[in-house]
Amino acid sequence: MHHPRFRAIYSDIGGVLGTNGWDAKLRARICDHFGIETTEVDGRHHLVFDSFERGYMSFETYLNYVFFYVPRAFTLEEVRTYAYNASTAWPENIHLFSQLKRDNHLKLALISNEGRGISEHRVGKFGLRELADFMVISHYVHFRKPDLEIWRLALNLAQVTAEESIYVDDREMFVDVAREMGLTAIHHTSLENTRVALRKLGLTVR
Fold it and tell me: DSSP characters for 129-185?
């Protein structure tokens, strides 16, 4: 049956449906694994990350700027493969959203800050094409959370209002921004907590 109030549910990818694609922890692991000094890498990361996530730079170019500004004993391909292999889907979480979409007749879309290369790899690895009706990923649209435009675009693409929409994210700040825009927002801290929050909204949750 159609839910009287909600027509769409939006979810983040990293931290909700699986591990983050690229974050400080993964950078630290890469530095540790390949024996790289982290301070310089972190400094360089902060200079180029925004361009990377907004789609103005490929993952390879990003890696070149951040890691390969000096000769290394390892290759870009090795670092890229390490990063790709680190992405892990959380099947139970993905299943929850698949079931929610079906049982509550909701459109399901993903809103994510991810850069080129990493994002395509994860979409395939996590089976997100099969899960989502559409995706609004920062590098395609040149906006990134917390830009309000990324949520506006997602609402327009689904042809729903903020009031008809639920948003789930593991980052509290993005939850707050979505809530200020009028979406019903859930801060994802665990699968069980999110299930409880969705049930409280009157959705069918198995």
Answer: HHH-SEEEEHHHHT--TT-HHHHHHHHHHHT--GGGEEEEES-HHHHHHHHHTT-EE
Q: Is the same domain home to 78 and 124?
A: no
CATH code (residue 31): 1.10.150.240
Both tokens of 172, joined, read 């509290």
- Give the pLDDT mean for 170-192: 98
Return the pLDDT at 1.
45
Residue type, 78: E
Mean pLDDT, rounded, of the chain: 96
Mean pLDDT of the region 175-180? 98
Q: Is the pTM of this model over 0.90?
A: yes
Taking only the tens place, the pLDDT of each residue in 66-77 is 999 999 999 999
| Distance from C-alpha of 183 to C-alpha of 100, rounded to nearest angstrom | 17
Residue 10: partners with Cβ closer than 8 Å, 6 or more residues away? 108, 109, 110, 111, 151, 154, 165, 166, 167, 168, 178, 183
Angle in degrees, CA 131, 194, 205, rounded to 5: 65
Total number of domains constituting the chain: 2
CA distance 159 to 84: 34
* Domain assignment of residue 49, yes or no: yes
**Are both 103 and 56 inside the same structural domain?**
no
